[in-house]
Amino acid sequence: MAVRTPILFCTAMIAAALIAGCDYVRLLRPSVLKQLDPDVAALVNELPEVDRQNKAIIGRLFPHGGLAHAREATDGPMSVEIRIPEGQFVWEPAIIVMPRPGDLQLDFLNEDSFSHHAALLPSNGDRQYLLLPTHTRGRATIRLDGPGYYWFGCPVANHAGRGMLGLILVRGDVPDGARLDRPVQPRP
Known about the structure:
The chain has helices at about 5-20, 30-35, 40-45, 50-65, 175-180; strands spanning about 65-70, 80-85, 95-100, 100-110, 115-125, 125-130, 135-145, 150-155, 165-170. By secondary structure, the chain is α/β, with parallel strands linked by helices. The strands form 3 sheets. It has a 4-stranded mixed sheet with strand order 1-3-9-8. Strands 2-4-7 form a 3-stranded mixed sheet, with no helix packed on it. Strands 5-6 form a two-stranded antiparallel ribbon.
């Protein structure tokens, strides 16, 4: 019994030291846990198996701009509202999830008093450009025919480099015709 007590104590001390050094354990503080709102939970559930090269980029977009699901309409395109907050270089939301390929109407609101912005948007392999002067609204309807990731950003000055990047994630299966020239991809 006397030999087991020091071994258990040493094992407990080593485990405590390892846990204290782990970055993830520090996330279990009450001040951090209270930040786990429904949007954070949605992101964690939405993108658990993002491939390695995109994980860091997508992970950085969410804390700054958030996530939204495109609203489906019975007789028109899906839609999302995107804000540009005062004095910040972010889209809110920065990640948009479409349940399926199709048309997406994006309603932008530039609340920034100091800078005009623009949106360079994907649309069926082409791009659309929408100018957003200070305190204005703008609307663009884009068509995304296939599932996948579609990036958008602000091409003004270095705004994209300062955080004005966004991602549209279109859910769905890749059509058989598109799979012919590609190797088999791992599925999440």
